[in-house]
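Researcher: Re-running this chain for the archive, since the previous output was lost when a drive failed. Same request as before.
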Amino acid sequence: MEKTTYTLSKPLYIMTKPAGSLCNLACDYCYYTEKSKLYQHTPKQIMSDELLERFIKEYINSQTTPEIYFTWHGGETMMRPLEFYKKAVKFQKMYGQGRRIANSIQTNGTLITEEWCRFFHEENWLVGVSIDGPQEFHDEYRKSKRGKPSFVQVMNGIKLLNKFQVEWNAMAVVNDYNADYPLEFYHFFKEIGCHYIQFTPVVERIFKHPDGRILATPTEGAEAKLADFSVTPEQWGKFLCTIFDEWVRNDVGDYYIQIFDATLANWVGVLPGLCSMAETCGHAGIMEFNGDVYSCDHFVFPEYKLGNIYQKNLIEMMFCEKQLKFGEAKKSTLTQQCKNCDFLFACHGECPKNRFALSKDGENGQNYLCAGYHQFFKHVAPYMDFMKEELKNERPPANVMQWIKDGGLEREL
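Model: Regenerated structure tokens:
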């Protein structure tokens, strides 16, 4: 039997895919939809009510914290009917025994109706909406299976969320196209009143597998070719720096951008709340529609499968030696270039899935986006230093905006 190490200081967190990889869209860069090929001999790739109850009961009983977080992911989560999630809430209340339970659901936003919004509002669910900026940017890659644009449907969904006062945030994919227009991109989210934004750089490689999958695993090397839609390191660095310059002068404390918050957290020396920027990972697994559990949602490949909830319990899988080694590898497999970098504390080599490039010394495992991150951290360093001091003295980081107006940056430089 594999060794399991369970520590109370490390919470157990598993995202759940009730509709598997099913989706009503066919986004060019999506790494979820092709996961259906892992289960091509399973005709109905949706979670059963029986598994839903089993998971919720075990997930709650596995927690050591007073508040329990459920995250529903996809594919497209709303391919399952609303009744499915009403059952989920019923099971949470049944097995929660009065503990605080929070739910978030990720969606492409096209299937949102008033009925869904009433449910989200009444049950206090947080909704994450995938939207890639203004219509021209969004519709470049996010189309239906018939090739039709999806922006108008998504915006209709957002309007309904606002109408019913549902809390929501945006998950925006940064690709080879929209990365060239950072201010247009950022201004769009401000115009629609989105105050919580997650930027995700898309980096995928193409490698054909016998089962029909075409996306490369993190361990497949030089033979895998970079997908055309991937953002370049240069684009990523310029994109972040340009938006940061507007944000740090006008929007600190009003608009929350996940990567900026995570950077400040690392500058201060606290956990960043973003696994890709943490020293180690492996605390967040993902469960497929049939109960299979994988190390991470970016690592849903056969070699990263931890087991199935019908054969192993969640604690056994998430704290097994294999998963602990997976999490520690984020730190132990850094290249020498990373170890010598002045900004190692700020990104810790970023996500292992992007470590397929060569370092300056020709060492395998350098993060593909390294040059972009280095440009960003060097650019923001004086602002981060100031905000760190403000926090240390129990003052709001938003004071950085007045500091800039008063010429503090020029004196610093």
